[in-house]
Amino acid sequence: MNGLKKEIKDWIIKDNEGHQLGVSDDNIEQLEKKYKITFPQAYKEFLQLTGQYFAPLAGIGGHYIDYIEKFQSDARENLKEYGLEHLMPEHYWVIAEWDGSIVIVYIDLDQGDDPPVYGLNIEEYAEEPSEQWKGTIANKFSDWINEKIAFFEEHGHS
């Protein structure tokens, strides 16, 4: 994860006193206890480093800690509404979304410390089940973050 820390360091937001606005270990533990899950190390470090805002993800729902729980509930409601709950691994976590979690980006919490990143367009998949609407986006969470940073640096938005 040192590579991810190096990549993210330029995107860390600090308060007026220079303190990093990362998510605290206590807040991460509270989320894990509430949902009875354990986050992969890469995702924990990402939350600790970036905190409440990460510009390279801002355009896609990001990971804003204030909204992350809404991503989970909206995605689960949408999956149920479209009858697609069976597509998801037992322990998944939505890390970004579009359109009220109709399109979700998620990780399988059971796939190691730097898990692959997956995407699903719930509405489109329900109409036309194909790999075009569901699949692997990146082989590792850290790769996905690095891709988002590179895209943001080139285009100024995600």
Largest sheet: 4 strands, antiparallel
The CATH homologous superfamily: SMI1/KNR4-like
CATH topology: SMI1/KNR4-like
Strand residue content: 5-15%
3D shape: globular
Q: Helices and strands: which structural class?
A: alpha+beta
Low-confidence parts lasting 5 or more residues at pLDDT below 50? Answer: none
Could you tell me the radius of gyration in angstroms?
A: 15 Å
Describe the structure.
This protein has six helices and four strands, in the order ααααβββαβα. Strands 1-2-3-4 form a four-stranded antiparallel β-sheet. Helix 1 runs parallel beside helix 6. The relative contact order is 0.15. The model has no long low-confidence stretch (mean pLDDT 82).
SSE topology sketch:
Elements lengths: L1 H7 L16 H11 L5 H10 L17 H14 L10 E7 L4 E6 L8 E5 H6 L6 E5 L2 H15 L3
Write a brief caption for the model.
The chain is built from six helices and four strands. It has helices at residues 2-8, 25-35, 41-50, 68-81, 122-127, 141-155, and strands at 92-98, 103-108, 117-121, 134-138. Helix 1 runs parallel beside helix 6.
Identify the notable features of this structure and list them briefly.
158 residues, alpha+beta, SMI1/KNR4-like, four-stranded antiparallel β-sheet, 4 strands, 40% helix, 15% strand
